[in-house]
Amino acid sequence: MTTVTPAAVRTTEDLPEPPRTWSCFVITPIGNEHAEQGSPEREAYEHSLRIFEEVVLPACSRYGVTPVRSDGIAEAGEITDQICRHVLHDDLVIADVGGGNPNVMYELGLRHATGKPVIHIGEHGRLPFDISPIRTIQFQATTRSGLVDARKKLEAALETVLRGAFEPLTPARILRGLPTGQFSPARLGEDEEDEDSPGLVEHMAVVEEQMEAMTEDLDGATVALQRITAAAEKFLPTLWQPDAPSSTQQAILHQFARAIEEPAADLKSCAQRFADKMGSLDAAVRAGLAFQRSMSLQASDNATEGPADLLEQLTGLSASVREGVEAITLFEAMFKAFSSLSRSLRAPGREIGAALSLFRRSASYFEQWEHLARTEQG
Fold this sequence. Notes:
Blueprint: E1 23-27, H1 40-61, E2 66-68, H2 79-89, E3 92-96, H3 102-114, E4 118-123, E5 136-139, H4 144-162, H5 170-175, H6 200-235, H7 246-276, H8 278-298, H9 306-339, H10 346-377
Parallel strand pairs: 1-2, 1-3, 3-4, 4-5
């Protein structure tokens, strides 16, 4: 990779023609442009395309950088091989981490290990817990002004990277034997404190609002599980009747599959809504714990009560999540067994498996919060 010195790169007003063209790969959820209108796959495609066209593309164009998505690779060959080559070798990577798409996170992990420049962007409230400590350009994708603000922040981040003000993240520093304790990621051209960043009161409002909504999501998931249980109790006891022909068993499994299609989809939707709230709630909970910890340090007679107050509010919700994970795990095991008997159960089985994955990811947040709060309590 050719190094561009700080003096060699300026804004377009100072340097209309940069000395060379930077290669830039955009890691983003692609979705499916050929999927049915209104389907999750088609909506994901439209959403990611809008962010690319209204945020990434104009910001990069200002500096003569041409960003490429995986669906825009023109070369012939295996797409997975080409994506890996772009991720590992391009001068710059911009990663849309909103929602924590598994493919995005995998490709991003590869990029982090290279030590080459990478800029994180993501819709506010949808950042995955795993990379929450890394500076990310957050934005509201539902408004025109939110996209404009994201573009401006990305332009500032690009200028920072093009000037060479970038340091490898922790994975690359470990691989190179570099110290990690004193390293803090580049702030991507932002001020030390963003004027629009929420304060403690706003954070606590988020906690109250999100926890109330998440309780509703858990209630919806419980109802879905109850409907699946009722269907299982209705159809499955008759499955293994003596001398029942395979055609009868197939008909029973087909009826069972049809009966649970809707609750299985509802279960996944509840789990998705629940998981989507974790990013903003994580930031709010951590801010609340940090503040209460600072207050407890100033009042020695109340030194261990602060973090516990907020933790106590999360305990009931955390227990509900764990119970939900345990219940869905039982269904997942059952569907894995039945899916080999009838293909009609594979689709609802995937929905239930996806719900379990989302609830597991959400449960990990609560474990982190509990550990953090108890550590601060000493």
